[in-house]
Each structure stands twice: as C-alpha cells, then as structure tokens.
Amino acid sequence: MDRFDDDFSRRGFLKGSGAALGAGALATLPFQVAMAAAFPERNIKVYVPTREGGGADRNLRAFASIWKNHIKTNFEPAFYPGAAGRVGYETFMGKAPRDCYHLLFGNMGAEVLNWVVKPPTFPIDSYFYFAQVDADPGCLFVSTKSKLKNVDDVVAEGKKRTLNVGVSRLAHPASLGALALADKTGAKFNLIPLSGGRNTLSGVATGEVDFGALPTSSIVGRSAFKIVALFDDKNALPDKIPDAVLVNKHFNMNLPPLVAGARAFGIQTEAVEKYPDRYKTLVSTAEKVYGDPAYKAAVEKTKAPWEYFMYGSAEDCKKYVASITEIGQQYKQYLTGKQKKS
C-alpha cells in the first residue's frame, strides 16, 4: 500500500472512530499529524509569470506530468504575463494564500534581474526558489541568411557600426552576455527587447535586428538560425551546435556561466514557516522526478535538449540568484533601455 492509500485509509478510520467513540474521545486523536500526513488533499495551483506556450510552460508541463504521480495530486497552471514577469510575481505575492498549495514557476535569472532594475513592492526575501528544473545556457545566434557567419564577424561588424541585438527582454542573462562581450571587445551593441522568445526569433529571421541573444534551447533544431557563441563553460551539444564558441575561452573572459533558462518552482517564505511538513513533502517528491525514467521521455517529447535538464536544490537556486544579481548590478544602467553599450 503506498502513502496515498495509507493516508486515505487513515482518514476513513478516523471518521469511523469518531462515530463510534463520540466527540470527546475523538478530540484526543492527533488530528494535526493526520492532516499533515494527508497533504496534498487538493490540486496545487502554479503561477507562471509569462504567457502560455513558452519555455516555462513547456518545462512546467513536462515536470508536472511526472511530479503528480509522486505527490498524488494535479497541478493547475495559471499564466500572468506582463511587465517582464512583474505581473505574475505581484499577483503571486499579493493574492496567493500562504498554504503550500500555491507555487510559482518562473525563469529565475530573467525575473530576479527585474529587482535589480526596480525593487518589487514586496520584500525580496518573502519568497524563494526551491526546485530548479533546467540549466539552459545563454547564447548569441544569427540568421543563416545573414552576412554575419560567426561571432568574430559579429564583433568585427560591431566595431564598425552599432548592431541591434534582439532579446526577449532587456533584463535577461542572455542580454548580460551580449553586454559583457561588447564591454570586452569594444563592439557597439544596442539591445532591442522584442517581448518573448518567439518575437526575438522572428526579428532575427527577418533582419529587423542583426543578431539575437536567447536561451540555447530556443534555437537548437531550428534550421533558419545558427548559434555562434555560448555563455557557458562547456558545449553540452557539440553535434547540434558545432559552430558555437565558448565566449570565455574565445575572448579570454571570466564570466560565470550565464544560464539564461533557469526555470524553478518558488514558494512564499511564510508558507514554509507555517507548514514545514507540507514543504518537506513538496521537496521530497520533486526530487523523485529526476529518478523517474518517464521524465526523460516527457522532456524529449517537447523537443527540448535533455542535456540541459538537471535538478537544483533551494541552495543551488540561492547561489544562482546571487550570481546573476551581482552581474546585473554591473550592467544595471543598460537594462533600462536608456543607454546603449558602446
């Protein structure tokens, strides 16, 4: 008998015991322990601060499709796009009950950079991330029709004129990579926020912008584009992106890996303080997803590269957020749209 069946049986036993023993005797039973063991008793709502159909949606559905089998409940996504993720966070922190039945699922790097540009209306430490799903490195890419064939072409052209760089949003780890490269080489890059990955791909394909910066998985497998540079310490997909150079090695830089797709579940700090047993159940069952062979199949079905999927603990998430925040502070003035990097 698994935990869910055991909990169900226990609830039935307590109900029957109450009828037989009466209210006085029932009051002596350990209700709080029984209730804690029963978590969750209903579906869990997940607040997603982006529009439906993007990378966060894709990764959430793949993960939740397996997680539900271990935690014995379903997940209900709710999408709150707008203001580079602020709408979703403000809704989650302002309206979601602190009960562990309401979670956040966002792209950590891109979204915490919002707080570098402008602090939120809630204390930053009133929520945290506890289960990272993927580590998708930032990259630079060009259209296969572009005269820019590699990253050296990009830099050389950027020294002649200001190049427009398509990005999904200004405050994004991939955007930071482009800014850092310009800073190192003297190239002139102007970030153009195109509101999401799909629009960024379209902008590069049509020539609206000279090249783009996005999470790598957004580009892999698309024949219309070529990835020319990675902001990572390794190329995990050498067969699929053979022309991508490692920026640190190629340009003698020392950037930390700029993971541009770092989707993770978040939770209010107060919820964990109020219901530590519920939080423990969330963490322990989430960890089981990566040991389930069905998860790899679920990811591969989405066409996303399995090599970029890896579990990260709350401590891992904390370290990543601190690193991205530190780099964001260095380039804060360029993340508001008021200045070009030249």
Describe this structure in words.
By secondary structure, the chain is of the alpha/beta class. It folds into 2 domains: 44-135 and 262-328, 3-Layer(aba) Sandwich (D-Maltodextrin-Binding Protein, domain 2); 136-259, Periplasmic binding protein-like II (D-Maltodextrin-Binding Protein, domain 2, 3-Layer(aba) Sandwich). Helices cover 44% and strands 20% of the residues. The chain is built from 14 helices and 13 strands. The chain has helices at 3-21, 23-26, 31-38, 55-71, 86-95, 108-117, 151-160, 173-185, 197-206, 247-251, 269-274, 276-289, 293-301, 314-330, and strands at 44-48, 75-79, 102-107, 127-134, 136-143, 163-167, 189-193, 211-215, 225-230, 245-246, 259-261, 263-268, 309-312. The strands form 2 sheets. Strands 5, 6, 7, 8, 9, 10 and 11 form a 7-stranded mixed beta sheet that branches. A 6-stranded mixed beta sheet has the order 2-1-3-12-4-13, sandwiched between helices. The longest helix is centred in the N-terminal third of the chain and has 19 residues, at 3-21. The termini are far apart. Residues 1-36 have low confidence and may be disordered.
Main features:
342 residues; alpha/beta; D-Maltodextrin-Binding Protein, domain 2; 2 domains; 7-stranded mixed sheet; 6-stranded mixed sheet; 20% strand; disordered N terminus
CATH topology of the largest domain: D-Maltodextrin-Binding Protein, domain 2
Measured distance between first and last alpha carbons: 65 Å
Characterize the biggest β-sheet. 7 strands, mixed
Shape: globular
Q: Please give the radius of gyration in angstroms.
A: 23 Å
